[in-house]
Automatic annotation (TrEMBL), chain A:
Annotated stretches, region: Disordered: 1-25, 103-126
Organism: Odobenus rosmarus divergens
Domain of life: Eukaryota
Molecular-function GO terms, alphabetical: pyridoxal phosphate binding; transaminase activity
The protein's name: Probable inactive 1-aminocyclopropane-1-carboxylate synthase-like protein 2
TrEMBL record, chain B:
Family annotation (SUPFAM superfamilies): PLP-dependent transferases
Keyword annotations: Pyridoxal phosphate
Chain spans, region Disordered: 1-35
GO BP field: amino acid metabolic process
Originating organism: Odobenus rosmarus divergens (Pacific walrus)
One protein family per Pfam: Aminotran_1_2
Nucleus in keyword set: no
Segments forming domain Aminotransferase class I/classII large: 100-461
The protein's name: 1-aminocyclopropane-1-carboxylate synthase-like protein 1
GO terms of molecular function: pyridoxal phosphate binding; transaminase activity
Entry keyword annotation includes Metal-binding: no
Length: 572, 502
């Protein structure tokens, strides 16, 4: 739990630990001052040595870049300091120190799904608009944080939106393989949703409804999950709560299960948007259980989650006096693309039970298992859950049906108190009655789902996956080859020198400069620099073009490395 | 199950956010705007300890966090009335002796028009861009349409800009988001009371923001021209009181046309309130969700967006939705208009939690674009129906000798039933409310609007004639049996109730 980060963008769990203590308010600015000082010194050093390097054209470019980065870092440090001082001023109100949320700016990228943008590096962009990040006289401190975490994304998002790739109209536009969006079946979905049976506009849909979801939809969801999760007994519609998306479900769960400053355990690499969701409203901390890419005897699979690791992390956190309320798991995993076996799942649940931890189980990719040799086990399929009252399952249609614009997420929990408490938020996360009706019709149509949609969807996923993995193999790039999800988790360490998060960020920027959006390991709180996630659930043509750009960037990068290595050898 | 503590407790004086200015014990009831009741004997602790909801009550639940316990309590207390109503909802054929709901402010008069409009083929477009992640501020086509729509109907002197529009799933979310981005935990907004009580929950749940009531009187005193009149003097006093209690007030909430009073603020009044807010650097959130539901031709409505030269445009934020004016509370569409880009962006940052489906966004754009239908068909018909229903209910009340307030806007009449309470207490008010419910008609009582005088009720008239007649018959029955209990019957005092007891 004590890894070093190369920049200030420490994963949440790290800074929080230090900062929550009463002395945190002072030590943190001090640390940052120190960092600032060092950075300034380094910056001046660079300016001094500039002439010596100018003869090398490439070196100069690199230098420019480096200077820019330094400046970016400086500005960022200053703005963070201001934020800290501001939040310090309000500390007397009994507020949580608010600076941990600053981390979110750096980390939320993986939350691209959330932010709809593929901005790999916020810090630079943040600087373009430094005033907006901290000089708003109209917003509360938390408003400023919330806004800042979003604004950088917004800028990139707008650039992307205004310059989207189109094979004929804009062949030079951005291709987005950063957002985990299923674009393979938009044709099928459009067709199905255009059928007249999904259109219904009666009184009941136009009026206020049950805030936990229309009864007809909750019944359908219960039937649907019973069937697709292979539940031994029929699920109860009363245990279903419908909200406008899984982020909303997660956010409300964090609110009702944890008090501010309490924590949830989660293995990393991990869907980064949850950091954002837990921070944003609920001020809940995620304690990261870092997994290793290396296989050892004790740990044969890369990034394997073990109960040992969970126990160790829990112990460490508990020693700091922090209260851990639950464990968050994603199955099938994002970004690893793997599924948990029934036995390991059971182990995790037993672990949670031993320590009275809630388990938030995100199964949003449950129907996106395309490798036929793999069996997905929903926790709901277990004969007897170790601790049913503390097991809460999340599912939605965004990924499995590729309709992220629908805004629909589901909570299934046996715990009536949790269901009621989450329903209190129904008003703030409600789904239109008309949409609830369409979803009900969709989930009802088993014949179409089983006969048309799923077979087509999975075969397209398989094909796209095969294409991408072949390309990766040909390029000699290591990746984790698993059969679920919309993405591959790839290892580009060899392209980084030195292998730091800063270099990772620069590489990501380079992809972006070449009009390719990928998301990097840092946004998944991966502890090792160099990992990237490529989303392959896109049309073949775009995928092909994307992989061409990918190849070009790697070539550029290799060229740079070759230039750089003799250079550093010379220095030595 | 946990039971909530029965007695109120005050926060320690050191807690700046503890705001003795209101106790949350009363606001949700109607609050959920459909769940028109709550159990009368349930008392909520005063929320105390800014930023520390754990201090509020010790949850008996081993599963929920402390704040989770409080949050659940909101649900349970609302559930109470909701269940009573929904287990026994009136249906002409299936359950003629079921409960008639005159408590929820919903316009049930125009479902025929809306259903047919929303079923037209132009509404049914499905295309990939609508199925994918949207711009969280709302699809551009919709924001453009909203800007045009508001420019026209709010009579804005210059065209409004799409950049200043943020679209989300209802005004509840908007209140929540604004509270979060404008206030720190424990800070407060001013709000004239009585007011639409659900706002309490909206700003509290996520934002942990309080409301400071500016209590208004039914009695017409001084320079007042009408009961419950909001004056700058009252605003100043409430603000001063809050300040002296250490409560940091960040904004003012105005509802115009007003819920539950049905009041419409004149341009002069509006300007005064806005100037007051400017003097104190307060944000003003103007909820104009009933702006097109002004059915009396003589009543002139003025949106803040129509004012030439807003006093403090950077701190003026306007809210509108289709829930009321288009009778589609189930559609979940609300919008913010603010010139303040910081605020717009901050609210948009929260929109991924409060987004609405792309397909609905498309339908809304189509609807708002269809000026012909709105102006030629929908609005005239809607206003005529509202007016007819209002005339009927007002007549009934007059015949019963019951004073009430109504100014030709909104879906409801603010009824003075004080003379039917043997004692001027909220307990008696609740008993009367219960008596209505026992007699199968659901109303909302004044307490849920944080009215400081017991005995006021909100009666919603925007329902179909057969339900309305039956509902009024039941109201009559209750009051007929009850009025004998009252010590001194009063003469009919329409439009101008006098405060008889204090």
């Amino acid at each position: 739990m004590s890894h070093q980060s190369d920049t200030l963008h420490l994963p949440c769990g790290q800074t929080r630990g230090q900062s929550l203590g009463s002395q945190g308010t002072h030590t943190r600015p001090l640390e940052m001052m120190l960092h600032l000082q060092q950075t300034i010194e380094k910056h001046i050093m660079q300016l001094v040595t500039r002439h010596q390097q100018q003869d090398l054209v490439l070196g100069d470019q690199r230098h420019h870049q480096a200077t820019g980065e330094q400046e970016a870092l400086l500005g960022n440090l200053v703005s963070q300091l201001v934020g800290l001082l501001q939040s310090g001023a309000t500390g007397g109100l009994g507020l949580q120190p608010s600076y941990p949320a600053l981390d979110v700016r750096g980390d939320v990228g993986g939350g691209q799904e959330a932010q709809s943008s593929g901005q790999p590096d916020q810090p630079v962009h943040q600087l373009k608009d430094p005033e907006a990040t901290f000089v708003s006289q109209h917003l509360s401190n938390r408003g400023i944080e919330i806004s800042a975490s979003y604004q950088a994304n917004l800028q990139d998002y707008r650039i992307y939106q205004g310059d989207k790739y189109h094979e004929d109209k804009n062949p030079l536009g951005f291709i987005n393989l950063g957002i985990s969006e299923n674009k393979l079946c938009l044709d099928l979905m459009t067709e199905r949703l255009s059928q007249s049976d999904t259109n219904f506009t009666e009184d009941v849909l136009l009026q206020y409804s049950d805030w936990s979801g229309q009864p007809f939809l909750r019944e359908e969801v219960a039937r649907f999950l019973t069937y697709y999760c292979k539940v031994p007994a029929q699920l109860d519609p009363e245990n279903v709560v419908v909200l406008n998306g899984c982020s909303s479900i997660f956010s409300t769960l964090a609110m009702v299960l944890c008090d501010p400053g309490e924590a949830l355990l989660t293995p990393t690499p991990f869907y980064g948007s949850f950091v954002f969701s837990s921070q944003l409203y609920s001020k809940v901390e995620l304690i990261l259980v870092h997994l290793d890419s290396e296989s050892t005897d004790a740990n044969p699979d890369p990034f394997k989650l073990t109960v040992d690791k969970l126990e160790q992390a829990l112990l460490e956190v508990t020693l700091t006096g922090k209260k851990v309320r639950g464990l968050v798991l994603i199955n099938p995993q994002n970004p690893l693309g793997d599924v948990y076996s029934r036995d390991t799942l059971k182990e995790y649940l037993e672990f949670a039970k031993r320590y009275n931890l809630h388990v938030i189980m995100d199964e949003i990719y449950m129907l996106s298992v395309f490798d036929e040799s793999i069996t997905f086990h929903s926790v709901l399929s277990m004969e007897s859950l170790p601790d049913p009252n503390r097991t809460h399952v999340i599912w939605g249609t965004s990924k499995d049906f590729g309709i992220s614009g629908f805004r629909f997420g589901v909570l299934y929990t046996h715990n009536k108190e949790v269901a009621s408490a989450v329903s209190s938020f129904g008003y703030l996360h409600s789904v239109s009655g008309i949409i609830q009706y369409k979803l009900c019709r969709l989930l009802q149509d088993r014949e179409w789902i089983d006969g048309v949609y799923l077979p087509t969807y999975r075969s397209r996923l398989r094909r796209a996956h095969r294409y991408i993995t072949r390309k990766l193999k040909a390029l000699g790039i290591p990746f984790l080859n698993h059969g679920s999800g919309l993405y591959v988790w790839i290892n580009l360490k060899v392209c980084l020198d030195p292998c730091t998060f800063e270099e990772e960020r620069l590489l990501c920027r380079r992809f972006l400069d070449n009009k390719l959006i990928l998301s990097r390991g840092k946004t998944y709180m991966c502890k090792e620099p160099g990992w990237f996630r490529i989303v392959f659930a896109d049309r073949p043509l775009r995928l092909k073009q994307a992989m061409y750009r990918f190849y070009q960037v790697l070539e550029e990068q290799k060229w740079d490395l070759r230039v750089k290595q003799p250079e550093s050898a010379q220095k030595e | 199950m946990f039971t909530l503590p029965q007695k109120e407790s005050r926060a320690p004086a050191t807690c700046p956010g503890s705001a003795s200015t209101q106790d949350l014990d009363s606001n949700y009831g109607d609050g959920l705007e459909r769940e028109c009741s709550r159990k009368p004997d349930r008392k909520m602790l005063e929320f105390c300890g800014a930023g520390d909801p754990t201090a509020m009550l010790s949850s008996g639940s081993s599963y929920l966090s402390s704040r989770g316990g409080v949050i659940k309590w909101f649900w349970d207390s609302a559930e109470e009335g909701y269940r009573t109503y929904h287990t026994d909802e009136y249906d002409e054929d299936k359950n003629p002796s079921g409960i008639i709901n005159l408590g929820t402010s919903e316009n049930k008069l125009c479902f025929d028009l809306l259903s047919s409009r929303l079923s037209q083929s132009d509404m049914l477009r499905v295309e990939p861009s609508l199925l994918q992640y949207p711009d969280w501020r709302g699809h551009r086509f919709l924001r453009e349409e909203v800007a045009r729509f508001l420019s026209f109907y709010c009579k804005s002197p210059t065209p409004l800009k799409p950049e200043n529009v943020v679209v989300l799933n209802g005004c509840a979310s908007l209140f929540s988001a604004l509270a979060t981005v404008l206030c720190e935990v424990g800070e407060a907004f001013l709000i004239p009371a009585p007011y639409y009580g659900a706002i309490t929950q909206h700003v509290y749940l996520y934002g942990n923001v309080r409301l400071v009531c500016v209590y208004l009187d039914s009695e017409v005193t001084g320079l007042d021209t009408r009961p419950f009149q909001l004056t700058v003097e009252r605003l100043e006093m409430a603000l001063q009181r809050a300040n002296s209690e250490g409560v940091k007030v960040k904004g003012l909430i105005l509802i115009n046309p007003h819920n539950p009073l049905g009041d419409i603020y004149s341009p002069g009044e509006l300007r005064n309130y806005l100037e007051f807010a400017k003097r104190h650097e307060l944000h003003v959130m103007v909820d104009e969700v009933y702006m097109l539901s002004v059915f009396e031709k003589s009543a002139a409505y003025c949106s803040v967006l129509s004012l030439e030269g807003l006093p403090d445009p950077q701190r003026t934020h306007v809210m509108w939705a289709t829930s009321k004016d288009f009778g589609m509370s189930g559609l979940r569409f609300g919008t913010l208009y603010t010139e303040n880009q910081d605020v717009a962006t901050a609210v948009a940052s929260l929109c991924r939690y409060h987004g609405l489906s792309g397909l609905v966004q498309y339908q809304m754009a189509q609807l708002l674009r269809d000026r012909d239908w709105i102006n030629q068909v929908y609005l005239p018909e809607n206003h005529a129906r509202l007016k007819a229903a209002h005339t009927y209910v007002a007549g009934e009340l007059q015949a019963l000798g019951i004073p009430f307030l109504s100014h030709g806007a909104g879906f409801f009449i603010w009824v003075d039933l004080r003379k039917f309470l043997p004692e001027a207490t909220f307990k008696e008010e609740m008993l009367l409310w219960r008596r209505f419910l026992d007699n199968k008609v659901l109303l909302s009582c004044g307490k849920t609007f944080e009215c400081k005088e017991p005995g006021w009720f909100r009666l919603v008239f925007s329902d179909k004639a057969h339900r309305l007649c039956l509902g009024m018959r039941r109201v009559r029955q209750v009051l007929g049996g009850k009025s004998q209990v009252a010590e001194e019957p009063h003469s009919c005092q329409t439009q101008e109730p006098r405060s008889q007891r204090r």
